[in-house]
Amino acid sequence: MKITAVKQQVKRADRYSIYIDGAYSFALSETELLKQGLRNGQEITADELAVIQDDSVKDKARYQALGQLSRRMRSEWELRDYLKRKEYAPEIIDQTIVWLADYGYVDDKKFADAWVANRRLLKATSSRRLRQELRQKRVADECIDQALADDETDEKQVLRGLIERKQKQTKYQDKLKLMQYLSRQGYNYDDIKSVLEEA
User: What fold characterizes domain 107-153?
Assistant: First the structure.
């Protein structure tokens, strides 16, 4: 068998399609192509082809996982779930997660820290809501506990700001409706009552 073409993909310039005996066989990232040392005109055996095609599947799983991470940080569970939906075998998923963790791309503690910091920055989010969101992403409780312990946000101050903004809206002139809204946001009743009494 002979490699008859190595073509750069049009939509993904960092990936290359490999043709064996004139027919498309598999694709590799630029990094994996260089690592494999494949070139046009190269003769390969059926056994070598099987190994390279297996490496091609692993390479594609890593490539797709990195694509997800380029949009935002992800929890380990989110990445596993994504790769599972892409129908990768469990061993490929495990190997991909280990590879990502070795490079520091998957770390649920860092993910929890970043999630808390970003949510605090973007919205008046309660600790209870943050805990719930992180649990939905299957982050371990010890990572969540640590992230929330490291967070120096004054929750009552956040609540004061939220109440101040909401009280300007006609809908929340009714104290009961405001309290129900704040409760749904994860703030505890005693804090809500205390801050409203201050106001």
Answer: Arc Repressor Mutant, subunit A (1.10.10)
